[in-house]
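Sample A.
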Amino acid sequence: MDFEISKELRKEIDETREWGERQVRPAGLEADRNGAPLPVDHLYFRRYLEHGGGRTRWHGAGGKSSSGSSDGVVKSVILGEETSYWDRGMTIANPGVGLPEGIVLASSTEEQKQRFLGPFLEPDRPRWASFALTEPSGGSDTANFKTRARRDGKHWVLSGAKCFIGNASRADWILVQANADPDKGRAGQRAFFVEQGTPGLGGFKIEKKMGLKAYESTSFTLEECRIPENNLLGEGDRASEKPEQSDKNVKGYKSTMGTLNASRPGVAASAIGIARAALDESISFARANDLMKQIRVRDRLELFQRKLRAAWLMVLKSAWLADEGKPNIVEASMGKVYAAEIAQDIATLAMELLGVVGARGDHLIEKLYRDVKALNIVEGTGQIQRVIMGRQLVGLPR
């Protein structure tokens, strides 16, 4: 691994830091104080577009299309860590295609890219997209998801419910994971583009969360929701085929899960960013309140600084392996588990140092303490990551 940061990347880090301090953290604090995501017409989102954000990585019809960032996963996690230092919630709330982008780039037809990614090339307004996987019946046991899809002539009809879905109510479209063949379990799952305003798509409810209040976690329902057959991911010109006749379609679940696996270093980097912010605030508070004289305070701060650096190295290793095209399943899971746990430990120490000040609910550390818990849950809980590592390391059955 090469740990040297190029001049170009250093410049981007500095720009991200300046943007984060001036715009991201104030916006995140505003959303947290209001207890709700910023409205879609908030000036911050317009500034974000003017800043160059909210665009797709797709380069348009005839251009290069890649399932990953053209700049590399290492660069992505470095910049993501810096952004999360200022506010993790706002990184999810930002306009753009977001999580489903990698799935669409990897698996959709060119016609689908034009329809669904095209508006994000040079967006005329803040636009969002969303990916709906989790259901009320469970988040980790994907084989038992209840959302169903059945063919009806030249349409698919979706019925079910989803929950804790980022930015769903404000999204132009939602990529919905549903089961077209329940007898096949995970192998029967497909992904469908469901456009906002489609009859049957509704019941949007933004959940009240302990932390990360800057972005909406939404529940919604699909009631006999009819969509065109070419809204089946990857099946534009071949939509008339039955699911079992399409090799590409059979791989739909693996494509979705593969994209999530590739995104886990980014989630771990977000935990590192929050942890670094909590550690910096802890040190500042300890110095301002003359706590550094206590050897136990100094020792614990040093211990967590050391563990934070170890976690960051894990994350960078998993990202580097992804850039090299090498397997990183174990490393990505290790990094996510360890980074999330260390981040929570650091935030807990920070709250202990605050003492009664933390109970007021107006200190940044108190917000970071509430925000950090989600990083051990999203995109595969810590428990699920341990199952993944167990299967890989000691050969447990899949």
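Sample B.
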Amino acid sequence: MRWLFNFLYLAFFLIASPWMLWRIIQGKSRRGWLQKFFGLAPGRTQIGPCIWMHAVSVGEVNLLQPVINELLSQQPDLQIAISTSTETGFDLASQKYALHQVFFCPYDFSWAIKNVLKRIKPDAIILAELELWPNLIGVASKREVPVIVINGRISENSHRGYKRFRTLTAPMFQRLSLILTQTKTYADRFIDLGCDANRVSTSGSVKFDGVTTNPNNPQTKRLADEAGFTQDDFVFVAGSTQLEEDTIAADVFQRLVPQFPNLKLVLVPRHPKRCPQLKQQLQRASIEIDLRTELTTARNSSRPLVVNVIGELGHWWGRANAAYVGGSMGSREGQNMIEPSAYAVPTSFGPRTKNFRDVVNQLLAQEAAVVVNNANELERFLLDCLTSPQTMKAMGDRAQTVVNQNVGAAAKTATQVLGLIAERSPSTGRN
């Protein structure tokens, strides 16, 4: 079957080549394509146990942190190689995991996969959440390298899509060595698609692990000082936002700040590369901003602060007095609302949150978050935060309780992963 997938991938590349060339010319997709096409991962020189962990982009890169910590806590001599698919994911992984090998994940051509396996020599491959590719799983299975899915989830739409092409996808699911899912519902879907029920278990969501609950942590305090925030400032953080959401948050801020002069706004766009476009759009609306990269010392400004770097959002949530989690009111699905909830920050998000449906259900069941459907509702939420601080603090405390009740998935994941590797011959998969 691998030749069939290679043929289909090549056909897709030929059809999409004009679009891909245009993106390269525009500078939107310049790095990593040679490494991806040929599987040019850096070769591993050290001997010993090794795990190849794959994270698609920024969200999955952050997800790996508590799992890596637990793996190294339980087996300190373990080597870890981390691959990502996107440039932003690669940049963040290179920053967060500087002590580990980071590379671009190969395209799902059999020759690229073989080349990476030859260079990395992993004892296991870990895929975060759901990033399944038939050649990757097929080649690894043939070489007796177990493929493990952690924090696994399958949406209803994905489940239907895989079932529609069951003839092609069932062998891929059957070859998975271990599937650790966030919920029993996801576990049942994996089994329904062909996974061995004995290899599927529910470990909980790793997204609850590794989050910071103390707003007085050094990173948050440093950023707040650089932004010039005082204890009297009320900071509204809108993070992981799309362009239309940035505009909404800025407009809401502009309407409320005359009444509440201590109100401050921090915008953390999902994709920092579009910050120049955002700056121009806000200027057309007579809204001047400061950019994070322009901060040198503690500023003295009431202008909105736009964070045009990656990797800092988790710390900015810690200084928030109110939060909006982006993607959820725009054209895409919402992002991670666990981080602000962990800080006990009153948190809002839009209606598009299917990737975090279970988290959202828990928060809403405890009245620990607010859904806002438009700019007026976001303004009402922020006004409530400003005028009813005790009520909103109670909501934030309930959100933090929900997070604390779900901690522990990373430790369970690491234990099961290392247990599976220990069952195998030490030489398997490293030749």
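B remarks: The chain has two domains: 48-210+408-422, 218-405. Residues 208 and 226 are 28 Å apart (CA to CA).
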